[in-house]
Design a protein that fits this description.
This protein has about 375 residues and is α/β, with parallel strands linked by helices. About 35% of the residues lie in helices and about 20% in strands. The protein contains eleven helices and 15 strands. Helix 2 (about 15-30) crosses helix 7 (about 175-185). The structure holds NADPH dihydro-nicotinamide-adenine-dinucleotide phosphate.
């Protein structure tokens, strides 16, 4: 867990409102532990992680050290030698190791309650559906799938299996994002007037799957712009009714032969709130801001998996709010463990993932037609 002593000290220095927000963080922790006077829950909810790539190796597998309810009991990989080596490192039993060909046998493994899919985007739908057919809960990385139709098929598979489906929007489980949402919903600064959400990074190697349309489903929108879409939806608390988008891509850049670089898009919400958003594979962008009647509040960075920051601005006064830095992946995995055990819908369910894809499909249509696109 990344709660440093410095952060705790900063946390105690915080203002009254910040402490209220911080209490939210500690109540999240207390709830995860089964309540303030309850013993911690047992780590009995077993996961199999599918695809041992950079996110799995760098963030997800290490996160099991920070979970309260979840444990790593399986690995699925195209490379059995890597699976064995990684399995040995994390104490995964030999019976929990699978290839993509033997994946369906996971149905017979009672140690594994859920499958965490960390594959390239075009494989999310297939492995979610196979995992549900095998009787497992599913945590699938964002974007949920490459099309709305695939998202619908995944939701149907979860319903048919009577299992929970969680889309990997890790930010919804950590204290900074939760504080932003609470500030907006409780109207700490009055009604929200506008939202700005910008997400991007400068992508490297032109040969990677993220730059191949068939695999990634698209360019920056699918991979990073989706954070801006999701933020606009969770900060407004509404579903958008219209999208208007413009693209800027240098087609001579070898990275962008198949997919887009930068898209500037606006989402219009039923209340009248407009979100102004940027998605880019060319520049670093990492900011989500809410402009309300009596002030603004923002996170920068907002989509990173650590070192998040929250500031509020009232006129010329700028105040930093201090909250605990938590392990997003551990919190999210424990949330599915709880949802799966109690048979309740997770916070970021298939509908949430599908609704982002509806916006992204509308963004692409608006770019293509040069017109605003209504979202049904
Ligand atoms: P990587 O390419 O690093 O890893 C993907 C893994 O999938 C590979 O290592 C491989 O594992 C497996 N795989 C199976 N089939 C293929 C194939 N045809 N081509 C390539 N890999 C294949 O990707 P990332 O880990 O960066 O991303 C995986 C997913 O996680 C994506 O959907 C991405 O959007 C999401 N992501 C989410 C983040 C977040 O913060 N929530 C951050 C980064 C990524 P093996 O060799 O074991 O079979």
């Amino acid at each position: 867990m990344s709660n440093s002593h410095t952060t705790r000290r900063d946390f105690m220095r915080a203002t009254g409102v910040s402490l209220a927000a911080a209490t939210l963080g500690s109540s999240v922790a207390a709830a995860e532990q089964g309540g303030p006077n309850q013993p911690p829950p047992a780590r009995t909810f077993g996961y199999a992680v599918v695809g041992i790539g950079s996110l799995a190796e760098g963030s997800i597998l290490p996160a099991f050290a920070n979970t309260q309810r979840s444990r790593l009991m399986g690995l699925v990989s195209g490379d059995m030698a890597k699976a064995r080596e990684t399995g040995a490192q994390y104490g995964v039993p030999e019976r929990g190791l699978y290839t993509y060909d033997t994946f369906d046998r996971i149905a017979d493994n009672p140690d594994i309650h859920a499958v965490y899919i960390v594959l390239p985007n075009n494989l999310h739908a297939e492995y979610t559906i196979r995992a549900h057919k095998a009787g497992k809960h599913v945590l699938v990385e964002k974007p949920m799938a490459n099309t709305v139709a695939d998202c619908e098929a995944m939701i149907a598979a979860a319903t048919a299996a009577g299992k929970q489906l969680l889309v990997g929007y890790r930010l919804r489980y950590e204290p900074f994002t939760q504080a932003m949402i609470r500030m907006a919903r409780e109207k700490e600064f009055g009604e929200t007037r506008a939202i700005v959400a910008e997400a991007g990074f400068n992508i490297g190697n032109p040969a990677q799957w993220r730059l191949q349309k068939a695999t990634a489903g698209g360019g920056s929108m699918m991979d990073i712009g989706i954070y801006a879409v999701n933020a606009a939806r969770y900060l407004s608390g509404e579903e958008p009714v219209e999208v208007n988008a413009t693209e800027s891509t240098d087609k001579n850049d070898p990275r962008f032969k198949e997919v887009e670089d930068t898209i500037h898009f606006h989402m219009k919400f039923p209340s009248g709130v407009i979100a102004s958003c940027l998605s880019s594979y060319g520049v670093g962008l990492n900011r989500a801001r809410v402009h309300a009647q009596r002030g603004s509040f923002e996170m920068e960075p907002f989509w990173s998996s650590n070192n998040l920051r929250l500031r509020v601005m009232r006129g010329n006064v700028v105040e930093q709010r201090y909250l605990p830095q938590r392990d997003h992946f551990a919190l999210m995995m424990d949330h599915l463990a709880q949802a799966g055990t109690n048979n309740t819908a997770p916070l970021t369910d298939g509908i949430d993932g599908r609704n982002d894809m509806k916006v992204i499909e509308a963004v692409y249509e608006s770019v293509r037609t040069g017109r605003p696109v209504r979202i049904a």
